[in-house]
Amino acid sequence: MKIFTLVKTNYNHHVSMDLYHEFEKKIIENGTWEVVNGVGDKSARIIRQLLKRFPVIKFPFKKEKNYVVIGYQKEKFFPYFHYKATSKSLWMYDAWEPCFNAIEKSIRSYEINNLFTASKQSSEYFNTLNIKNFKAFWVPEAVDVDNYNFIPYQERTIDVLQLGRKWNEYHEKIKPIEEKLVYKYEKKPGQIIFKTREAFINGIANAKISICVPSFITHPEITGNISTITNRYLQSMASKCLILGKLPDDMKYLFDYNPIVEIDDENPIEQIETILENFDSYIPLIEKNYAILKNHHNWNVRVAQMETLMRNKK
Prior knowledge:
Helices cover 38% and strands 18% of the residues. It is of the alpha/beta class.
């Protein structure tokens, strides 16, 4: 008998949802979970709008299932979290401080039993609420290194890469490096540097330095004070980039050493130039990060962690 039931994501409205599909793929490959289909693309759009307008409908049926949803899109909950169930578990990566009240409301409305958040701070907060039949756990993001490439260091043609939302204050300081170096970043807010998934994989594999800064620094209005590792750090490690940035609090618990090079706020351009001039000296750190990532921060490890937590809580 299969103990856990995954509600499989059946649409992909945003590039960030690739992360959900990676996670679910490992759960499915595990072979010990039951898998049921969530709503499709068109249905998801309709249900999302309905859920914004009407309160949560609770179906008067009990399902002897331990449902698990990956991702905090409420249309994914339908119809499974609307039933009474043996247990309902949710994993989410974007449990930001400004969203705490809305997430708490969802926990109570859908009677969610287990919340797995990618942020240690978030999980600790939700446990302070003392909600009946509920527990929050820290289950960080991960990556499947087999989905990524790495070009030999000497053949890489991108010197510096800053993917996604950039840290504008730092960007303005280092922008002059464009005169001498290849620096890739979004020219306009929301602009995608690499248009396809394949281009993204090949692009990050072609970068020597990947700038990664926690969003609580770059966009505190979105995240509040939550300082967590994001998938960009892990994707950079999987592509054997050297990470230049700021260390999120969560990484202090995930690594027993500092896996990144901390940004020198006073001499940012000189720092980048010095790193590139002495890049070979950073290769041991890059290779160590890759090995640790592959063995300890992959999706199989996260699946096993969730299974253990759900079994122990029952």
